[in-house]
């Protein structure tokens, strides 16, 4: 079967869910395509709100269409992370808790996308003196990051928790030492 390229748990979990639902590699590619199309729609929405001229909007739409073409060859976790991060950005500052959870979910697909998008939103909220909203966003993001670890610790015990943390946040050498 076709597993997306990532060591983070979001991608294999999503892959497993699709496989259990009866989707083949074509279903996985379709899910990636939907994530890419959603990202494109969100990006075009941001561009329209910034009063981008029509020619530049058309160029952006063309660029996004070309960007989506590689979905049929490369099932990267980035497609889902970008969609989730853009959806979260769309929710800031209107629905902070949902944005924080979406940033955390984006993290579980691609760490740098989730963290950087959340940090950008935190800086934006701080710049507009929305400190309470920034604190709620940070708290929800951290809770979204901790929730899977809490479940692993509760159901699998401390050894499973330590191994999962090591797999995600430590080097490959250390992880291979733990497995042997």
Main sheet properties: none
Hey, roughly how much beta strand do the residues contain? under 5%
CA-based shape:
flat
Number of helices: 8
Which structural class do the helices and strands define?
mainly alpha
Quantity of strands, as a count: 0
Give helix and strand order, one letter per element, not per position.
Answer: HHHHHHHH
Radius of gyration: 18 Å
Low-confidence stretches: 1-6
**Overall pLDDT confidence:** 81
Give the N-terminus to C-terminus distance in angstroms: 26 Å
Helix content: over 70%
In short:
With 180 residues, this protein is mainly α.
Q: How would you sum up this structure, described in words?
A:
The protein has eight helices and no strands. By secondary structure, the chain is an all-alpha fold.
Main features:
180 residues, mainly alpha, single chain
Topology record:
Layout: H1 10-20, H2 25-49, H3 54-69, H4 78-91, H5 96-109, H6 111-127, H7 131-169, H8 172-179
């Amino acid at each position: 079967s076709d597993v997306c390229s990532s060591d983070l748990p979001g991608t294999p979990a999503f892959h497993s869910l699709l496989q259990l639902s009866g989707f083949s590699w074509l279903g996985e590619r379709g899910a990636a395509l939907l994530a890419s199309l959603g990202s494109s729609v969100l990006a075009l929405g941001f561009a329209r709100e910034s009063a981008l001229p029509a020619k530049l909007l058309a160029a952006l739409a063309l660029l996004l269409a070309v960007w989506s073409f590689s979905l049929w060859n490369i099932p990267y976790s980035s497609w889902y992370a970008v969609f989730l991060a853009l959806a979260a950005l769309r929710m800031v500052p209107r629905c902070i808790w949902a944005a924080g959870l979406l940033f955390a979910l984006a993290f579980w697909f691609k760490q740098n996308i989730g963290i950087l998008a959340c940090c950008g939103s935190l800086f934006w909220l701080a710049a507009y003196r929305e400190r309470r909203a920034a604190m709620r966003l940070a708290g929800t993001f951290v809770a979204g990051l901790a929730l899977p670890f809490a479940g692993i610790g509760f159901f699998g015990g401390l050894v499973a928790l330590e191994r999962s943390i090591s797999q995600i946040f430590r080097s490959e050498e250390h992880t291979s030492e733990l497995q042997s």
